[in-house]
Amino acid sequence: MSNSSRRDFLKQSAIATAGASVPYFLTSSPVIADEQKADAANDRPLVGCIGTGSRWNAVGPNAMKLGDVVAVCDVDADHADKARQRCEAEMKKQGRERKVDVYEDYRKILDRNDVEIVTIVTPDHWHSKIAIEAMKAGKDVYCEKPLTLTIDEGKKICKVAKETGRVFQVGTQQRSEMGQLFLKAIALINEGRIGDIQKVHVAIGGSPTSGPIPIAEVPKQLNWEKWLGQAPLVDYRFKPGGGWGNSRCHYEFRWWFEYSGGKMTDWGAHHVDIAQWGLDQQGVGGPLSLEPIMAKFPTPFEDGMPTQDDRYNTPTEFHVKATFPRDIEVVIRNECNDLGFGNGVMFEGTKGRFMVNRGKLVGAPVEEFKTNPLPEDAIQKVYKGSTPARGNAHMTNFFECVKSRKEPISDVYSHHRAMTTCHLANIALRFDRTVKWDEKSEQIVGDEQANGWLAREARKGYEVTA
Fold first, then answer.
1. Where do the CATH 3.40.50.720 domains begin and end in the chain?
2. Distance (Å, rounded) from C-alpha 299 to C-alpha 311?
3. How far apart are CA 287 and CA 329, in angstroms?
4. Are the CB atoms for 399 and 23 separated by under 8 Å?
5. From residue 5, how far is each of 45, 353, 385 by CA, in Å?
6. Cα–Cα distance, 169 to 119 (Å, whole number)
7. What angle do CA 405, 407, 411 make, to 5 degrees?
8. Does the pLDDT at position 146 exceed 50?
9. What is the C-alpha separation between 322 and 349, in angstroms, rounded?
10. Confidence band (pLDDT; 50, 70, 90) for 15?
11. pLDDT averaged over the chain?
12. Distances (CA, A) of 23 to 119, 133, 392
C-alpha cells in the first residue's frame, strides 16, 4: 500500500471509530492495533522542497517538524546541497534517518508519486508556474508570499486551485503567529469595537536603492538561465561587498520589477492583506481606484518601464490612496511616522481607532479589553473555526488542513484579492496616474495601456498556463 493510501486508510479507521477531530499524525487512537500504531507514528507526509535559499531556512525546518523531506530542488547547487545536509541532519536527530534526493529541475519532484506536499520558496517570478503545475500533479502546496507577479497569475492560480481541490497555504504568517496580535485585531473589528471602518493606514517600508551593478561572470554553481525562468534573458550582474546594491539575483531580486514588486508586494503581501482582511469582516469589496500621490524611483521610467537596466528599479518611497466601496480609503505608504508608526496597520472607525504591527496592538479599543475582553471564541471565529497552535502555527494549520481538506487560514482567494490591490498600486505608481478597477471583470477601466500590465509575456518555454 502506498504512503498516501495507508494514511487515508488509517485516518478513516480512526475517524470512524473515535470521531477524531485533529490530524491523526499529531495524535494516536486506542482503536488502532499495535502494529498500526507503530506504522502511523512513523508515517508522516512526505515533502519536496522547491527553492532552498535564505527564506527556506525558516520554512523548511518548520515543515520538517510535521513531515519528512525526501527531496530538495534549487538552481543554485550550493543552496540545494546545504538544504540536503540540513534535512538529513534534522531527521537523523529526530531518529528517522533518510536520504534526501537533490534536483535542479523542480519537475523531478512533481513527477514523484511519493511526494504529497511541496514547499515553494523561490524568487517571486517562479511562484505561480510551479504552484499551478504542483496542484495539477496532485500535490498540496505551501508557497511563500507574494504568491504572484501579476494579477493574471492570481486568476490562474485560483482557477486551478478550485479545479483540483488541492490544499494551498500562502506564507503570510501574520495570519497565524506574531503573538496572535493580528488575529486579535481582526477579532476586534469583527466584534464591532471600532464601528464601521472609515480609513486604513498601511506602512510597509521603502525599497533600498543601488548604484550601477556591473555585468559579472555567472557563478559555477548557479544555473542563471533557469533562475531567470519566465523573465527576460539578461546578463548576470554582481559586485563584491556587503549590504544592498550588489546583485540582481537571490535575495536582492525583490528590488527589480522583472522578478518582484519591491516593498509593495514584499511587506504589502503582509499588511495590505491584514487591511483587506479587516474590510472583509464588514463586507467591503475590492478597490475601486488607486491614485498615486508620490513615488521616488532609483531610475527614471517611461511608459511604465525603467530606462536603466543596471540598478534596482522598485520605488524607494511611495504614497498611494486606494478607494474602496463606501468611500473607505486605504492609504499605502512607505512610512506613517506622522501617525506615530513606521511599520504596521492602523484602522480608523466610527467608534475609535487602533494600530497593529508585529510588536504591538495599541489604541483605546484595545485598552477596553481590561473591562470588556473579547469573547472566548473570538479568535476561533476569525481562525476559520480552529485554534492556532502555540508554536509553528502557520505550518501546523497547513498540515492539519492537508488531512482535513479544509481551507487553510491563508487561502489563495483572499491572497489574490490583497495582491490585486498591491499590483494595481504598482501599476499606478509606474504610470504615475490613477487606475480604476472593476472587481467583477478584473479589468482596469478606461486605460488600455495600464490594462495591458495585468499580465506579462513570459519567455518561451516558461509560460504560466492554467
1. 3-175
2. 8
3. 9
4. yes
5. 11, 51, 28
6. 10
7. 140
8. yes
9. 17
10. very low
11. 92
12. 19, 26, 15
Helix (H) or strand (E) run with residue 356 in it: strand 352-356
Which of the 8 DSSP states describes residue 337? G
- For helices 124-136 and 151-164, give the axis angle rounded to 10 degrees: 20
Q: Exposed, middle or buried, 155 (CB in 10 Å: 0-12/13-18/19+)?
A: middle
Topology given in CATH for the domain delimited by 178-454: Dihydrodipicolinate Reductase; domain 2 (3.30.360)
| Locus of grid cell 488542513 | 401
Q: How confident is the model at residue 43 (pLDDT cuts 50, 70, 90)?
A: confident
Give the right CATH number for 3-175 from 3.40.50.720, 3.40.50.2300, 1.10.150.120, 3.40.50.2000.
Answer: 3.40.50.720
Q: What is the pLDDT of residues 356-374, one digit of tens each?
A: 999 999 999 999 999 999 9
Residue 136 carries which side chain, given as an amino acid letter? K
The boundaries of every CATH 3.30.360.10 domain in the chain are 178-454
In order of 33, 40, 464, the CA distances from 43 in angstroms are: 15, 5, 34
DSSP strand pairing (117-120 vs 140-143): parallel
Helix, strand, or coil (residue 241): coil
Sheet with 435-438, side-by-side order of all strands: 361-362, 352-356, 344-349, 197-203, 328-333, 317-324, 289-296, 435-438, 443-445
Q: How far is CA 256 from the centre of its chain?
A: 18
Cβ burial, residue 199 (10 Å; 0-12/13-18/19+):
middle
Q: How many Cβ atoms are within 10 Å of 8's Cβ, its own excluded? A: 13
